[in-house]
Every structure is written in structure tokens, then in C-alpha cells.
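To the wet lab folks,

You asked to see what we're planning to order before we commit. Fair enough. Below is the target structure as C-alpha cells, and below that is the sequence we designed to fit it. If anything looks off to you, flag it before the synthesis order goes out.
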């Protein structure tokens, strides 16, 4: 079962419907059944289900030790095995030169498992029964690619009677539909155009445009999955905070990481940066902790040196920003420069996506070498294999992303839309459906791409 398939949408809607029926203490068994069915449907190999269930058994047994032993070394030892399992599947093939099938979602549910053990150790989450624990680790909307939900809010919702609220259900359904629309119409189209601008033989302005478009594409792809998952979870009675909050409106990379994949960046902050000492042990230790966090982020994303380079780049630039900010903190005139800083920050983030998407250092160097010279006068979309209407559509999509991000920077657009006049609201829905049919899955020559984060 593909996450982009009608089968998955119907499965999600069915799970939400039965969540309304089994709204009392039996609901956790309904969630368990949905999770197990999902594991069966997505598993092309038994390893997907076997590994996560073995991990659940380990966490179930380990939670009691974590709750009783106050020594933090015990907690670290308990977390070592899940980390080693993640490292094995991610890096064993890199060192042995063989292909090892990585269980789907392992990067995300490993972090959820570590969160759970840590919070049990801190006494902020009680020891859980096996059904509740499996529900948390294997919760199907978040299983493949997050967000990385914290344990206590999940268990609070799981153990509370589900009260049907029409507005929440409608907004959850709308968020799911907007997420799928963002993926099928926006992200996949940008991916196809980006690939054409990256074609061999093109350089200068074409490569610059490719780098810019890739930045918008990867954002739309990541954000679309999060919105789809959060919308489904909301319909099932599990609220989750937004995972992306207009990150390209940030005026620094420090702010960017407070708005980009928020569940991951906050996890790294709470479970790695702060336990390492955070900023409490002097500037030198603070900067070292920042580097460690971003290197871990790079290693978490992939098993090539390019992901480490990407993480290292973000870490170094964050340290430089910290140093510069210390000289200008509190200066009111800095606000005047915010539009310029937003542009600079976007350029840095876009350039750092180059190693992230590259298979090797040679590919990264090749892209950077092709960024110049830039000659706007010689630009012709046909050189990248685009007809003029495709180019105009690409510009329109980027403009829509920019405008909606500016609006989302200030407001929750789901709530804003939900409060509009019914004819205006449903007219907007009808337009989205028509666009999805024309340019999305039913459009000519359309080939849907999997979400990127599913591969991490």
C-alpha cells in the first residue's frame, strides 16, 4: 500500500470512522488493530513488521528498568540497543559494500522509542501496558516519516474518551487533503522541473534556478507529508503541532531550525543538545554541542558523507550566526534588515541542499562549479525541455508557495479557511479538486514520486 494511494486514504478514513465508534477505553485496541493492518499492508518484506515488534518488546521490558533506576547511565545503556539497530541498518551496507534492506520508518520510531524511555526515566510518563506502547511507537499516520510525536500528549489522547467535534474533523480532513494536494500537484511538479534544469550540459542561470527550485520542492514534499499525517491523526483524535512553520521566512539559520521539521529539531534539542550541557557550560562547549547535534542530524538523514557535510555546514553556519548575533543583540536597527536577511538565509539554505541531494562529493562540486556565470539574457526555458506554459506554471506554483508561507507565518490557514463563508470555502475546495485532477494524478504523463522522508 502506497501512502499516496486511494487505498491508504480510504484506510485512514476508515480508521477515523471507527475511532468515533470505539471512543472509550476500547479505542486503544482499535488503534492497535489499525497499526497492525498498516504494517501488513506496507510490508514488502517481513523485516518491517518483525523488527519494530521486537523493538516494542524490548522497550516494554526496558521501561520498567528505566522507571526504577535513577542512574542516567542505565538510561543510556537502554537506549544504546535501539541506536545500534538504527546504525546497523543505515550504515552496515556502507561499510560492507552490500545492500541491506532498511525497515520502513526505522529512523522515526527509533527516536520515539528513545523519547519514551527517557520520559519514563524522568517520571514524566508512567509505565505503559503493551497495547498502549505499540500504539505509540507504531502509530500509522506518523510511522513512515513522522512527525516525531512526544509520548505524554499521545497517551493523554489515547486514554481519554474521544469526543466527536465536527470542526476538528473537518479541519483534519481538510489538512489531509491539502497535504495530498501539496504533494501530488506542487511537490511532484517542482521535482520534474528541477530535474530538467539539472540536465547535463546546462549551467549558469539554469543551475541557479535548479538549486532554487529544489529548495522549494523539498520543502513542499516534507511539509505535504506532515500535513497529511497530522490531518489523519487529528481525525482520529490525536492533536499534533505543526511540523513546518514557514521556514523560508526565517531571517537566520538558527530561526530556520525552529521552523523546519520542528518535531525533529526539538527532539535533537531536548534529547541531545540539552543533555550534553546546552549553553550552560561556556561558549566553547556550546559550539561543540551545536556541531554534535547537526552531525547527528546529518547521520540520521542518510549514510553518505554528503549528509554529514550538509549537517556540518549547518552546524558551522549556526555557530557563526551565534557569534555575530552576540555583537548586535538588542539593536533595533537590525529589524530593518530583516527582508535582506531572509533572502540571504534562503540562499544559504538552498546552497546547503546541494550536498544533501548529491550522491557524492564529485556531484556536489559539479553543481557548485556550474552555478556561474549567470546570464539572464540567454535564459530560454526550452533549453531545459520546458514549453512556455510549463515555465509559467512553475513560476505560479513558486509564487503560491511564497505567498502562502507569508500568510502562514502569521496565521493558521486551516482555521482561517474554516471560518470563511460556506460558499467561498466550498468554492475553494472545488478549485483545488479541479486543479488536482488536471495537473495531479489524472494529468497527462503524471508519475507520482514517493515522499522523500519515507527513505530516511
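Sequence we intend to order:
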Amino acid at each position: 500500500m502506497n501512502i499516496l494511494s486511494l487505498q491508504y486514504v480510504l484506510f485512514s478514513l476508515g480508521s477515523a470512522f471507527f475511532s468515533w465508534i470505539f471512543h472509550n477505553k476500547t479505542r486503544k485496541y482499535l488503534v492497535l488493530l489499525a497499526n497492525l493492518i498498516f504494517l501488513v499492508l506496507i510490508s514488502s518484506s517481513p523485516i518491517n513488521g518483525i523488527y519494530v515488534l521486537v523493538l516494542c518488546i524490548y522497550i516494554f521490558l526496558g521501561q520498567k528498568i528505566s522507571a526504577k533506576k535513577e542512574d542516567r547511565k542505565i538510561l543510556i545503556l537502554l537506549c544504546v540497543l535501539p541506536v545500534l539497530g538504527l546504525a546497523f541498518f543505515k550504515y552496515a551496507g556502507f561499510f560492507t559494500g552490500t545492500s541491506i534492506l532498511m525497515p520502513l520508518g526505522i529512523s522515526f520510531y527509533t527516536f520515539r522509542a528513545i523519547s519514551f524511555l527517557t520520559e519514563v526515566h524522568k517520571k514524566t510518563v508512567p509505565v505503559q501496558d503493551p497495547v498502549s506502547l505499540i500504539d505509540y511507537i507504531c502509530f500509522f499516520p506518523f510511522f513512515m516519516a513522522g512527525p516525531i510525536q512526544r509520548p505524554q500528549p499521545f497517551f493523554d489522547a489515547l486514554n481519554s474518551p474521544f469526543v466527536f467535534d465536527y470542526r476538528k474533523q473537518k479541519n483534519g480532513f481538510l489538512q489531509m487533503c491539502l497535504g495530498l494536494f501539496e504533494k501530488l500537484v506542487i511537490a511532484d511538479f517542482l521535482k520534474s522541473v528541477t530535474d530538467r534544469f539539472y540536465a547535463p550540459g546546462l549551467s549558469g542561470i539554469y543551475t541557479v534556478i535548479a538549486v532554487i527550485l529544489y529548495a522549494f520542492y523539498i520543502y513542499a514534499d516534507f511539509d505535504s507529508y506532515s500535513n497529511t499525517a497530522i490531518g489523519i491523526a487529528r481525525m482520529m483524535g490525536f492533536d499534533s503541532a505543526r511540523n513546518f512553520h514557514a521556514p523560508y521566512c526565517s531571517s537566520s539559520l538558527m530561526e530556520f531550525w525552529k521552523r523546519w521539521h520542528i518535531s525533529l529539531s526539538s527532539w535533537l534539542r531536548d534529547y541531545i543538545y540539552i543533555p550534553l550541557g546546552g549553553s550552560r557550560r561556556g561558549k566553547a562547549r556550546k559550539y561543540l554541542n551545536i556541531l554534535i547535534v547537526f552531525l547527528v542530524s546529518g547521520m540520521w538523514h542518510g549514510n553518505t558523507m554528503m549528509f554529514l557535510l550538509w549537517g556540518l555546514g549547518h552546524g558551522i553556519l549556526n555557530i557563526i550566526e551565534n557569534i555575530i548575533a552576540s555583537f548586535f543583540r538588542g539593536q533595533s536597527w537590525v529589524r530593518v534588515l530583516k527582508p535582506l536577511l531572509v533572502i540571504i538565509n534562503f540562499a544559504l539554505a538552498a546552497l546547503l541542499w546541494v550536498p544533501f541531494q548529491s550522491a557524492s562529493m564529485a556531484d556536489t562540486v559539479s553543481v557548485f562549479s556550474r552555478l556561474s556565470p549567470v546570464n539572464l539574457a540567454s535564459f530560454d526555458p526550452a533549453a531545459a525541455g520546458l514549453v512556455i506554459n510549463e515555465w509559467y506554471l512553475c513560476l505560479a506554483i513558486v509564487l503560491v508557495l511564497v505567498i502562502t508561507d507569508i500568510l502562514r507565518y502569521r496565521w493558521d490557514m486551516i482555521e482561517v479557511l474554516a471560518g470563511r463563508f460556506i460558499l467561498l470555502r466550498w468554492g475553494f475546495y472545488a478549485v483545488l479538486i479541479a486543479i488536482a485532477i488536471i495537473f495531479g494524478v489524472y494529468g497527462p504523463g503524471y508519475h507520482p514520486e514517493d515522499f522523500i522522508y519515507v527513505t530516511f
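Structural context that might help your review: Residues 442-446 have pLDDT under 50 and may be disordered. Residues 6-161 form one domain.

Thanks,
Computational group
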